[in-house]
Design brief:
Distance between the termini of chain A: 31 Å
Largest sheet of chain A: 8 strands, parallel
Structural class of chain A: alpha/beta
Number of strands of chain A: 15
Strand order of the largest sheet of chain A: 8-7-6-5-4-3-10-9
Radius of gyration of chain A: 23 Å
CATH architecture of the largest domain in chain A: Alpha-Beta Barrel
Oligomer: homodimer
Helix content of chain A: 40-55%
Largest interface: A-B, 84 and 84 residues
Chain lengths: 348, 348
């Protein structure tokens, strides 16, 4: 897994691209004009580890509220702007750290030039955020979806480069995972700007997380991608947790504990699924990147549990607690949770 | 995405490998001796689309119950056997369709030869199911985890080939996603037997599904893999649904409806997340592989909804229902769900 090196840029305090850690983004789902609700959601996102936060800015009033919101939060904020170039200008005036434009729906060169000129003066990066759903219908109708998305992004890149602007990030999102992967692969060969990965409208939490994990996972494994957003139809904090799980699975980021747990089977002589849920709930309070194992039998239990910082391998009525590869004690079933959490407390 | 062609074999009525569809497997979590509970769980798994079902067989009584279970279910059954070769022989006597052996814990050549000879006579395939957690500690301690797993599998393959047995499937599972990917890539270059993919002890439903989607998704995208099992610490039917979501996202299988839904944002003027959940619940009853879209605003809504068989793009107080790319009607907010489901009913 060799990461493609891109031209780094800064969004507020966060570096995207180059050799910077792959940043986790999400988007507020509150009405941006509701400053209080939006600040609260941003703070929740920050607590979950979100590093860059995007806000929908559908009107000038929303753009204006950014200056108030910025005073109360520490994360870089990105304004998501469609259709109206004046809103992009207003958001920059309000002090936003980045802009996302959908080149499918601001098609006027003069308007786009005004945005780019203002962004250049204020050194505010722009994401060229192409979306399969809003490709102009008359744009290269004969080509594949991936080619159309890439060509629209390249057209926009050239336009910005002609204005001597290069604080550019690119995304090419579709619901179609294969088309999305293909589009990012193509643009990675044609441009050296940082790439923001995502599968658009991926769905409800479970299916959406799986679609996103496959699409984003394949690209990250190929070394493509500098920042990710998992789009889920749920509380945005779940998007952040899912994003970290993807990054953790490929060892690209660490965050919080990792729970190894066996799926249980007919060999299990204890309710390992219930114990795993209890341990998972307990681990929500822990911030350290420890690895905890809950195993339901002797077949794989001791072996896998040995690789974890702390683990339990449950047999009939009793279990073995491991710590850094060594059996610490044998405990009876009613003490499984207590004994395991006590060992966890010792190392965090 | 070009699939690697492997040597096909049959497990009961299901072909694995070659150009056969990538089969979905799961495992019962009931006590196999509890014949009634096990049959019920197998039937639930079959209803969810599970194509091959594995049962833990920890003792001869469990092996014997297979003959009773087989009479009541139609799926191919695989006996999961560890440590004791006599249990494998008993399971084959009881009419099982396949055996999974962990070469890490049956280390006696004479015992293994007895299993292979019996499998050859009955034409019962054996999965060489290597697991990171049960690699013998004295086996190639200096090599990487992936290399050790591959070498143990290759040793076992050669042993079986020497006995003129080639009804072989291979798995190389670890919790470590990168090591798992690497191991399967290596074995794909060295053997032409079908591969059973999985990430072991992946975790609770959400995190486990994400880890599995990344690991299995990367491999399938590379054309590697003939059958998959998603290991989750929950009801096995959820493993099957997650497996299909992975396969659907890469267009390798179709099953049931697909819900495209926007994650919602500050532009949304309706509770799109609630509507999406209601639609998702409704779709659970539908078996046809239709694509339904629930979009929360005009920016991406009409474009994406147009690609779906049926969709709704929700604006302020009213929404546009699309069907096969054409606007069918505009409906008021209180009729969103009703109008969408009526359109769905027309096409299924």
């Amino acid at each position: 897994m060799i990461r493609r090196i891109t031209m780094p840029l800064r969004i507020g305090k966060v570096t995207i691209g180059g050799t910077a850690p792959i940043a986790v983004q999400s988007m507020t789902k509150t009405n941006t004009r509701d400053v209080r609700a939006t600040i609260n959601q941003i703070r929740s996102l920050e607590e979950h580890g979100c590093e860059i936060i995007r806000l929908a800015v559908p009107d000038e009033q929303s753009a204006d509220s950014i200056s108030t919101i910025k005073k109360s939060v520490s994360s870089p904020l990105i304004a998501d702007v469609h259709f109206d170039y004046r809103i992009a200008l207003a958001a920059m005036n309000a002090g936003v750290d980045g802009i996302r434009l959908n080149p499918g729906n601001i098609r006027d060169d003069e308007q786009m030039a005004q945005i780019v000129t203002a962004a250049k003066e204020s050194e505010i990066p722009i994401r060229i955020g192409v979306n399969a759903g809003s490709l102009p219908s008359d744009f290269e109708p004969g080509l594949s979806l991936a080619e159309r998305m890439v060509d629209l992004a390249m057209e926009q890149i050239r336009f910005m480069e002609d204005l001597d602007f290069n604080l550019i990030k690119i995304s090419l999102k579709a619901f179609d995972v294969l088309a999305t992967i293909q589009a990012y692969q193509m643009i990675a060969d044609r441009a050296s700007y940082p790439l923001h990965l995502g599968i658009t409208e991926a769905g409800l939490p479970r299916d959406g997380a799986i679609r996103s994990a496959v699409g984003i996972g394949v690209l990250l494994y190929q070394g493509i991608g500098d920042t990710i957003r998992v789009s889920l139809s749920t509380n945005p904090c779940e998007e952040v947790s899912a994003a970290y799980e993807i990054l953790k699975s490929l060892k690209l980021r660490q965050r919080g504990p990792t729970l190894v747990c066996c799926p249980s089977c007919g060999r299990s002589e204890t309710d390992v699924l219930k114990l795993a849920q209890e341990v998972d709930k307990y681990l929500k309070k822990i911030r350290e990147p420890i690895k905890v194992a809950v195993m339901g039998c002797i077949v794989n239990g001791p072996g896998e549990a040995k690789e974890a910082d702390v683990g339990i391998a449950c047999g009939k009525g009793k279990g073995a607690i491991f710590r850094k590869g060594k059996v610490v004690k044998t405990v009876s079933e009613e003490n499984f949770l207590l004994a395991l959490t006590k060992e966890i407390e010792k190392i965090v």
